[in-house]
């Protein structure tokens, strides 16, 4: 039987959809991969990137990695996976409102935290101290998608890789220009969506965990954001949409001065009352100790070298960092407990993480 083209083929249809995007939006027809490969008849380049990220093992492991609270500490706290999904939802909403490429925004958002460590930013700080090359989760996310996953990476488009590498704000300004800025506006939206998501949900989780009293939240914060995660997200999204505008050069993203001030006040409150809370620090310190134990043994004990992907790393130290960064909280705790008890971790049970 002669095959017929699918009536749902996105060849001309995708071109028609992308013709309606803003002039400064990224288009699948312009996407570039590190290694050339045949196209897909029913998915654009950025849709394919999204699917590759969604189906890779590091993405699934995000379900058991800390966002703020240890991943197994409660059934309703955000994990790194639920945070990622919230960032993706916000980024897609913003991309649609600005007539940007939703597929690119979604793919970048889904991949932005693939390289995060167990035990959240405490784990990241610990690996940065232990690694001979330093460590930052955004750089490791890029290392995963370019090299480690399946031993060859995912061959994602250059725009998605760039957005992953440049998504992290740290303690710097929300909006940046020059080499530090993502090259696409979709990538810039993911950077902002990441900030919106954690400002909204970290306070929500802290109240649920009773680390802070909702009545003690500064009145100015509640006045601007409301008292729920949903109202906080909406306030920031509405303000961004109202204070951003097209220019001859592209899209000028911005919050109002009042919103930026409120966001900094909320961030300062979270830093003082949540991220530095003694109960939270005590739990994360345990995670830091586990990472230090595992790293030390991986570096010293040749009997553990079978857990390391030495062929994909420049040194044993880098291989150890790659292995630890891929661990979930639960995996790291189990591995550390085995080492502390004097038992060799069960390779058949624990398996490797990088494939």
Q: Could you describe the 3D structure shown?
A:
This protein is mostly helical and 355 residues long. The protein has a single domain (46-350), classed as Hypothetical protein af1432 (Orthogonal Bundle), CATH 1.10.3210. It is 55% helix and 2% strand. It is built from 16 helices and 2 strands. The chain has helices at 11-19, 45-54, 57-61, 80-97, 102-111, 120-130, 137-148, 158-165, 185-208, 219-225, 229-242, 257-275, 278-300, 316-325, 329-340, 347-350; strands at residues 245-247, 250-252. It has a two-stranded antiparallel ribbon. The mean pLDDT is 88.
CATH fold group: Hypothetical protein af1432
Total count of helical runs of at least 4 residues: 16
Domain tally = 1
The percent range for strand residues is under 5%
Largest sheet: 2 strands, antiparallel
Major sheet: order of its strands? Answer: 1-2
Which CATH-level-2 architecture? Orthogonal Bundle
Helix content: 55-70%
Mean pLDDT: 88
- CATH class categorisation: Mainly Alpha
**Gyration radius from CA atoms, angstroms:** 21 Å
Tell me how many strands there are.
2
SS class: mainly alpha
Give the CATH superfamily: Hypothetical protein af1432
Shape: globular
Distance between the termini: 39 Å
Task: Give the topology string: H per helix, E per strand.
Answer: HHHHHHHHHHHEEHHHHH
Low-confidence stretches: none
